[in-house]
Amino acid sequence: MMGKEMKQKSKVLIVDDRVENLVALERILGDLDIQLIRATSGNEALALTLEHEFALALVDVQMPEMDGYEMVTLLRQEPATEHLPVIFVSAVYSGDYYKIKGIEAGAVDFIEKPLKPAMLIGKVRVFLDLYRQREKLQQFSNELERMVEERTASLEVANEKLKNEIKEREELETRIRHIHKMEAIGTMAGGIAHDFNNILAIIQGNAQIAVKKMANTEPIDEEIQDILKAASRAKDLVGKILTFSRISQNSKAVIHLQAVVEDSVAMLRSTLPTSVVFKSKICAGCRPVRIEPMEVNQIIMNLFVNATQAMDEKGTITLGLEEVSLPTPDSKGCDVEPGVYICLSVADTGCGMDTKTMEAAFDPFYTTKPIGQGTGMGLSVVHGIVRGCGGTITIDSEVGRGTTFRLYFPVVDAEPTVPAGGPVPSSPEVQEPETDGDGARVLFVDDETSLTLMARKILEREGYRVMTFNHSPEALAVFEKTPEEFDLVITDQSMPELSGVEMAEKMLSVRADIPIVLSTGFSTKVSEENFREKGFCGILAKPYNTSELIQVVAAGLAIRRNDTLNG
C-alpha cells in the first residue's frame, strides 16, 4: 500500500422529511471537508447512529411520525449518542419558546429558516473543531493509558527483579557470615582442638585405667570420679567450639542473653592479652530474646577482638547487659519501634573513631587495618545478626576517648527454649566390652607421647600386641619394611611431616587389605561422613575413652577377618 491511509472525514447527519431541504443543506456545506449522510425521518436517523459515528446532527423540528424533539430525547438515552451535538433547523417553529424547548430537549442550537449560509457554516465549523479536539483528547488519553500500562508492567518487572536481588543479597550475606565465622573461629578451633583433645584423651583414659585397677581392690576414689566428670565436661566444651565453626541454618531460639553472654565471655577471656582489663555489669532478671546461641558467641568474639585491637592490646573492656525501654537518652540513632529491649553494650578505652569511620563501620569489607590484616567483615556480621533478630546497633565514639557499641534485642513473651546453663554431664560409667585381643598386632601412631603410652596400656591389657610411634615417617618406614607383621593400624590425623591421611595412602599402596583407623579431634579433610572414601575402616573421635578405643580396634579386626574369610 503506497503512502499513508487517507484520513477519514468527519460525518454530519442531516435529517429532514423533505428532500429539497436536504439538497439545500448539502449545497451550503459542500465545501467543508466532511461527509454528509441523509435521513428523511427520525427512525431512519436513529438507525444510522447505530452504523456511524457522527460529529454533528442537523435535525428538522417538524417531521411526521417523530418530530425533532422526540428524536433528540431518544438520542440522549443511548450511551453512544448521549453527547452528540444536535442543531435544530426549522421554518415553522420560531421564537424564544421553541428555542428554549429545543435546548431543554437536548439540542445545542436552534437555526431558523430561511438559512443563512455563512452563519450555518460558521456554527458547523465550531462543532467540527470541538469534535476533532475531542478526538485528539481521546487519542491522547488512549496513548497515556497505554504508556501507563507499559510503565506499570515495567515497574512490576523491576519490582520482581528487585525482590530477587534482595533474596540473592540475603543468601550472599548468609554465605559471607559463614565465611567470616569460619575465619574468626578457625584459628582457635583448629589450633586448640587437636592439642586439647589429646590432653583430654590422656586424662580420661588414664583415669579409667586407674578406675579399672582399683575396681577389684578398694572403692573408687571420689577424686578420680571428679577427674572423669571434668574430662567429660571439657569434651563437651570442645564439641561446642567445633559446632561453632560449622554453618548453621539460623534456627533462632528463645534464650536468656545473660547466661549465654557469660558463657561466651568465659570462653574468650583466656584468649585476651593479660594487659587487657575486663569489667562486667550484667543485670540479672533480663527477659528472654530470640537469637541463635552461637550467634551470641560470634557477636561477643567480634566485639572483643575489635576492642582489643582498638586498644592496641592494652586497656579496659566493659561489658554491660540491661533491660531498657526505647527511646532512651543514650539510644540516639535507634531505628526500631518503641518498646522493651535488652541492651548489650561493649565499651573500650581505645583510639576511638571519627564521624567518617563510624558512618562506614558496618559496611561490608570496610576496614582501617592494613591489607592482609583484616577482612572488614567483623562489624558487618554483627550488624547483620542484630538486624536479623529485629534489633539495632549504635556506636558512641570519639577519637582518643574510646568506643561503645550498644546492641538492642527486642524481648519476647515466651519461655526460653534453651536452658540457662546447659546440662551438666553425668558421671561417666566405665562399661568396657568383653574382648580378647588374642595376640593381634596393632600399630598405634600419634605425636603425643602420653597418648601412645596410655593406648598401649589399654590395648595390652586386652590381649593385643602393640607397637607405638610418635613420628609418622618412622612408623611408615617400619610398616613398609614388614607390612605383614601388623593386623591393624591406628593413626592420628594432625601430625608434623606426614599426616594420617597421607600415611594411610602410602600404607594402602603397600598393602591394600590393612585396616586403618583414623584418630582425630579436628580435621577439615576427614569427617565421620567421608572417612571411608579416604580408605579408613573406622574413625576414633578425640577425646575417646577406653571403651571407644577397644570397640574401634575390635570392629577393625572384625572387618579384617571377614575380608580374609570372603577372600
Can you tell me about this structure?
A five-stranded parallel sheet has the order 2-1-3-4-5, with helices on both faces. Strands 7-9-10-12-11 form a five-stranded mixed sheet, covered by helices on one side. Helix content is 46%, strand content 17%. Among the domains are: 10-115, 3-Layer(aba) Sandwich (Rossmann fold); 248-410, Histidine kinase-like ATPase, C-terminal domain (Heat Shock Protein 90, 2-Layer Sandwich); 441-566, 3-Layer(aba) Sandwich (Rossmann fold), CATH 3.40.50. Mean pLDDT is 81; it is low at 1-5, 243-250, 370-376 and 420-432. The relative contact order is 0.07. The radius of gyration is 47 Å and the shape is elongated. The chain is built from 14 helices and 17 strands. The two termini are 90 Å apart. It is of the alpha/beta class.
Explain briefly what this protein structure is.
This protein has 567 residues and is an alpha/beta fold. The protein has 14 helices and 17 strands. The radius of gyration is 47 Å and the shape is elongated.
